[in-house]
Design brief:
The complex is a heterodimer of chains A (348) and B (253).
Chain A (H helix, E strand, L loop, with lengths): L3 E3 L11 E6 L2 E2 L6 H4 L5 E5 L3 E6 L9 E7 L2 E12 L4 E10 L5 E11 L4 E9 L5 E10 L4 E10 L2 E10 L5 E10 L4 E10 L5 E10 L4 E10 L6 E11 L5 E10 L4 E10 L3 H8 L5 H17 L5 H15 L16 E4 L1
Parallel strand pairs in A: 2-6, 5-7, 6-8, 7-9, 8-10, 9-11, 10-12, 11-13, 12-14, 13-15, 14-16, 15-17, 16-18, 17-19, 18-20
Antiparallel strand pairs in A: 1-21, 2-3, 4-5
Helix pairs in contact in A: 2-3, 3-4
Chain B lengths: L3 E10 L2 E11 L4 E5 L6 H9 L5 E9 L2 E2 L5 H6 L2 E4 L6 E5 H15 L7 H14 L10 E2 L5 H15 L3 E5 L7 H14 L5 E5 L5 H4 L4 E6 L2 E6 L1 H10 L2 H9 L1
Parallel strand pairs in B: 3-10, 3-11, 6-9, 9-10
Antiparallel strand pairs in B: 1-2, 1-4, 4-5, 7-8, 11-12
Helix pairs in contact in B: 4-5, 5-6
Classes of the chains: A mainly beta (348), B alpha/beta (253).
């Protein structure tokens, strides 16, 4: 039982969303924004306490993003499940947040299955800022029909161990998936990102842009797998994983893996692991910029690429600030939660 | 008091001796040219003044505004008014020129105990200073030197010089890779910034730049030390006789 009231109001300025709140993985009925849902066409059902089904009918373009926020206060093996079905020609954005409240160790497992019908469009933002005792594992499976369009953005800011698995199935022609991710890890944090893109049909396009900055003795693993099937001619599949290590002891394992079974394809992959450019640092300092500020400028420039395609303006602006704060070491989870989503509002 | 005084400076890199006893004195209001063959220490000297730490100073001192220069960090030297125009300016994708210059100006102001620059004042300053090097108005949001031609990079160096208003500017081969038009623009920019309160050191191989940026003194840096100094006529003599002449002259003395 928390001794403090948790304020579930999302405090990213100007960001209005349809909020679906969970506390330790349990859906909080009264926190689901029924007023916004009333009269709208979204079909939202809960199945038990931990599973939510969302169905958006055909030809619907949601004017507000959905937001699923799980405030993790205590508990081990907390599990949540969501199934999202998006009708033909419909457009949905989802912001999915996992945030710690307090310093207790928690472990959670999320599973989301998303089905995009023909020409449907889905933007998925995953934000992770949990305390350094907690672990989080998320598996998201995306099934794309003809002409469907998927864009994902992952921001992993804090956590003892984070594991994200993205499985994308481009099942019908002309489907597109653009996957972006940024992980900023320090101390002894660990993150594993596993991406499996399956080109099962022809003329599909996928891209992966995952970037990370690791400090102290943090450890990141990136496993990027692209499978281009026999019938998948005209496939375009790009993959980039770039990492910056700020210390000798930080570590990255990066493994691109392409399995290509058709000749008529354009595929590329690239992985880099490096440090901040010394020449650039000297150039900035030679104009009077301190070493710390110079590093911040370069690190922020590195991160920014992941944000450029985002089109939720209030979120993008907040993310820019959040990234700057995270880089300055000003953001550990718990009371200083990044999004202030679960800021204590009054003690009992 | 001289603005800059270099006494018997010796420096090496990875055990290889580059500077073998440089002596130089620069006062405010002066323009000095340093010429000399490749590999003889010109860029090394410029880098050491700016604070690049890959060189080992084995002997000698540099006194800037009465202070031991080696006591100052790279950023402190800039805040105290030193500016290096790089020979090969680096590209910094993702850092906008606006953000770069604003951060530089504000950090220099902070060093001097001043308040940060007002945003509107800053934009006006940028627009005004761009004119000094005839650069187009969409400069602010471009990434530093990214996709810039050689000429644009050099103009960007002079633009930064115009923004930061340094007391001692060292321009390392600012003319290399420039066509006649770009050379004229860069030289005009530098000339517009000359004043009795600052000094400029122009490092170059070729006499041509010195037709535009007319120096008060010309020095020849040969095998790590300044072996000859003279008026601008010395530059013409070098052009005519080549650097080998210097070598021969030294052997005969």
């Amino acid at each position: 039982m928390s001794k403090v009231d948790i304020d579930f109001n999302c405090s990213i300025p100007n960001l209005h969303t349809i909020r679906i709140m969970q506390h330790n993985g349990v859906l909080i009925e009264q926190q689901i924004d029924q007023t916004l849902l009333k009269g709208s066409v979204i079909d939202l059902k809960t199945v038990g306490e931990k599973e939510i089904h969302i169905r958006i009918p055909n030809n619907v373009s949601l004017n507000l993003p959905l937001q699923m926020l799980n405030v993790l206060e205590q508990g081990q093996n907390l599990q949540t499940k969501a199934v999202i079905e998006i009708g033909h020609n419909s457009k949905v954005q989802l912001i999915h947040c996992d945030d710690s409240f307090g310093t207790q160790a928690t472990s959670s497992l999320n599973r989301i299955d998303v089905y995009l019908s023909e020409n449907a469009s889905f933007d998925y933002y995953k934000m992770e800022n949990i305390n350094n005792e907690s672990s989080l594992s998320t598996e998201v499976n995306f099934h794309l029909s003809q002409g469907a369009n998927l864009t994902t953005y992952g921001f992993s800011l804090n956590g003892k161990k984070i594991c994200n698995t993205l499985n994308i199935f481009l099942n019908e022609p002309y489907a597109q998936a653009n996957l972006n991710g940024l992980y900023l890890m320090d101390k002894q944090q660990e993150i594993e990102t596993i991406v499996n893109v399956n080109h099962k049909a022809e003329m599909c396009h996928s891209s992966q842009l995952f970037k990370g900055i690791l400090d102290d003795t943090a450890h990141a693993t990136f496993l990027g797998h692209v499978n281009v099937g026999y019938g998948a001619k005209g496939t375009e599949a790009m993959q980039i994983n770039k990492n910056i290590l700020l210390t000798d002891k930080a570590k990255v394992n990066t493994r691109p893996f392409l399995e290509i079974y058709n000749d008529d394809v354009k595929c590329s992959h690239g992985s880099t692991i490096g440090q901040l450019d010394d020449e650039a640092l000297f150039y900035l300092r030679s104009r009077g910029i301190s070493m710390l500020s110079a590093k911040m400028l370069l690190m922020y420039a590195f991160c920014q690429e992941v944000l450029t395609t985002s089109n939720i303006e209030p979120l993008k602006e907040s993310l820019e600030q959040i990234i700057k704060m995270r880089l300055a070491g000003e953001l550990s989870a718990c009371e200083n939660c990044a999004f202030q989503c679960s800021a204590a509002h009054k003690p009992i | 008091m001289a603005l800059l005084e270099i006494k018997d400076l010796c420096a090496s890199i990875k055990g290889k001796q580059i500077l073998t006893g440089v002596n130089l004195k620069i006062n405010k209001g002066e323009v000095h040219a340093i010429m000399g063959p490749n590999g003889n220490g010109k860029s090394t000297l410029a880098s050491i003044i700016a604070g690049k730490d890959i060189f080992e100073v084995t002997k000698g001192e540099i006194i800037y505004q009465g202070q031991n220069l080696f006591d100052l960090s790279v950023e402190a030297r800039a805040a105290e008014g030193i500016f290096l125009g790089f020979q090969y300016p680096v590209e910094i994708p993702g850092v906008s020129i606006k953000n770069f210059m604003m951060t530089a100006i504000n950090e220099q102001r902070k060093y001097k105990g001043l308040d940060p620059i007002n945003a509107i004042e800053f934009m006006k300053l940028m627009q005004q200073r761009q004119k000094v090097v005839e650069m187009t108005s969409d400069l602010a949001n471009r990434s530093v030197n990214e996709g810039f031609s050689g000429g644009e990079k050099k103009k960007n160096e002079i633009f930064q010089m115009a923004m930061l208003n340094p007391t001692l500017s060292i321009l390392d081969e600012t003319d290399s890779g420039l066509d006649i038009d770009a050379l004229r623009i860069v030289a005009n920019g530098v000339n517009a910034l000359r004043s009795k309160d600052n000094a400029i050191v122009v490092i170059t191989h070729y006499q041509r730049l010195l037709d535009y940026i007319v120096p008060d003194v010309v020095h020849v840096l040969y095998e790590g030390k300044i072996v000859k100094s003279g008026t601008k006529e010395l530059a013409l003599e070098l052009e005519e006789k080549g650097y080998e002449w210097i070598g021969k002259e030294l052997k005969n003395t």
